[in-house]
Design brief:
By secondary structure, the protein is mainly β. The chain has strands spanning 17-19, 23-26, 29-32, 41-45, 49-57, 64-73, 78-84. The protein has a 4-stranded antiparallel β-sheet, with no helix packed on it.
Length: 102
């Protein structure tokens, strides 16, 4: 059996970009990282907002895709946006779907 350990690091950044499988870029540094699949994890937290996301396997265990993103406003912890992504989009034949199906 293989055991996977996930590490959470808290950092203060003034500018950055996130995207990919997941990948974060800041300055001249690019870091590919893994998140625990199916677990809502804090991605960004400020005094005013909290952004969380959860991932699922993309094409295989080497690839993670965001399946859910949640934006919460603070200090009242009001959930403002909760976006869920269809996990099987890679294999969906949209040519046979009606517009209302998606």
């Amino acid at each position: 059996a293989t055991e996977t350990t996930y590490t959470t690091t808290t950092s203060t950044v003034t500018e950055g970009v996130a995207g990919g499988d997941p990948v974060a870029r800041f300055g001249g540094v690019t870091l590919q990282f893994e998140l625990p699949p199916g677990t809502l994890t804090t991605l960004l937290e400020t005094h005013d907002i909290l952004i969380q996301g959860s991932v699922f396997e993309g094409g295989g265990p080497w690839e993670q895709w965001f399946g859910r993103m949640v934006l919460t406003t603070k200090p009242g912890q009001h959930r403002s946006i909760d976006i869920n992504i269809k996990e099987n989009l890679l294999h969906v034949n949209t040519s046979q779907m009606m517009r209302s199906d998606f």
